[in-house]
Fold this protein.
Amino acid sequence: MIHRILVATDRSDTATRAVAWAAEMSDRYGADLLVLQVIAPEHLTSPDDGAEAQLAALTRQVCGERGRPLLVYDSDPSSAIVRTCEDEQVDLVVVGNVGMRDRTEFLLSSVPNRVSHNARCSVVIVNTATAGPGGSPPPGGGSQAAADNGEPTEGQLLGRAARVAQVFGRYGLDEILHRGQDDTATRARRFRVALEELGPTFGKLGQILSTRPDLLSAAVIDELAGLQDHVTPLDEAAIVAVMEAELKVPWEDVFTGIEPDPMAAGTIAQVHRATLVGGERVVVKVQRPGAEAQIRQDLGLLGQFAAKAGNRPAFQQVADVPAIIEQLSSSLLRELDFRYEAANIERMRAVLAPFDRLDVPRVHAGLSTGRLLVMEEIQGIPVLQAPAGDARREAARQLLEAYYYQVLEAGFFHADPHPGNLMWWNNRIYLLDLGMVGEVDAGLRESLLVLLLAFWQEDTAFLADAMLGLASERPPPDFDEAAFREDLSTLLAGYRHVSLSELRLGPLLQQLTEISVRHRVRLPSTLTLIGKAFGQMQLAAAELDPSLDPFAVAGSFYLRQLMDRMRTLANPQQLFYGGQKARVRATRLLEGLERAIGVRGGGSGLQVDLRGVQDLTGAIGRAGRRIAVGLAAATAIVGTAIVASAAHPAGWATAVFGIAAVLLTAGLLLDVVRRR
């Protein structure tokens, strides 16, 4: 039998629903009803703030004569409720699942959960967030989630378009674009502020535009590099709602506590420190409710603009607007799905495996979803505060070499490696925030390697050829190649024989882009992103070891790559495979030619017999083999020259390359003489 019921309240609207539910239970069982409110002493506004009288009035209004109010002062509401249940010999305690939330909740765990785990009597947790008697939906309920996943309506797009026009009108769109009286720096600043005010979609658009020096001036690009999120942090209730929706269990079943103050709050997500039930310290990234809906709305609006602008010759001559909007859409939709960031972290871990001084946080995949990301907390210090010593210097070298490896070998790099995203912990540099990464295809990687080697050897002519090879289209008819080479020569002369503290590869690549824009040589936009990433990374590397020579690191990286290729080319199996592949391709080429002219296959008609095909196939096979051996020999000769001309050549390396060059050249000559 139930003789005494206790219901806890903080006098909020949702908690009052729990009181009404308990009053109905009290009438049904004829039980006494105790209405308890716990107030933290530190929250008192005055010695007598009227709380006792207000609680008594609420009790009379909802519970009638059967209810008895009780006010307790305690900093831990759940402990006070459990203790009162024991003191009053309560048979049933009732609490609401919403309400009684304050800044201590994350640290102490929620009241309903702790009461249900610690009370010795029966506990009923009332769902006070459900619709009321009038059928109105609860605030912050499922309607928002449904809106997040739906496509924006025409009315929503029109409303958003009006908002965009209002913001740009307030900051003066005409003056921003170039027709105003303000100086360039002022217009650029107003453009940045307008993009920040319009939210994450336009902020990301600004980031993309900052990689297009062919579209915007240097002042605007520099200003867009400082784009920041300006948002009010989510409250604890909103954070809990997202976490529990993703985890499918009460958050206290996974975490013992979450720090209430966010580490960072952006337009897409908010980040908190937390502790797992097992005691491990982690970082939790939670997506803001409504972020997806707003971004999809903006993308729909920009998509309509791109569809109209893409057909206008004036826009086509300046930029491929649909391609820019497509890049923006793809980037933002991936950023909304935290599973992509988790995959980026694991991919970067594999890329950094050869570098024992570099790492990334561990991801708790079982706790992470598209809107929730749980990672190991890196409990270190900012990288610029790393203690002096061999570990610091070696980490600096590995950081620089790892970026060569990411860009030139793996084709996958951290695109935002500013010092704030680098932490020093356990004598390692940890790369954080892999929501923004870049990818480089194989062809561009080869061209970039050639470009850096041209700088290393101070070869202006070869550098110009490498730049033209990178161009996505042919130069214009009036292209002045002599002036182009002269500009590159001037640039190269200013960057040789300087230390890492003076040299910035990022600005160097950006200056190459500026030269190409001036001469109307269109380079891939990825090159600018690579330049920015290199520039940010070197801010940290220069602090860690200012004496590090970036070109020496590039040279050692290239030599290792060269030796790896030598081992591959000198492998007899690889040589045989290359020859056979050339023979098969030659045979297929001839068969394709036969099919093209209609002389292959059965049936009547014209029959053409190509004589000497077998001899031709054999000759092509031998030529393919000789080309493979010749390339290997040439690579060995180049390697010998590079090692021998290095400032501190390794004797063993010179000998290895030299012997390989002699053997491969002798084998090639022997094969030629023997076949005559």
Remarks:
- Confidence is low (pLDDT under 50) at residues 99-109, 131-149, 602-606.
- DSSP finds 26 helices and 16 strands in the chain.
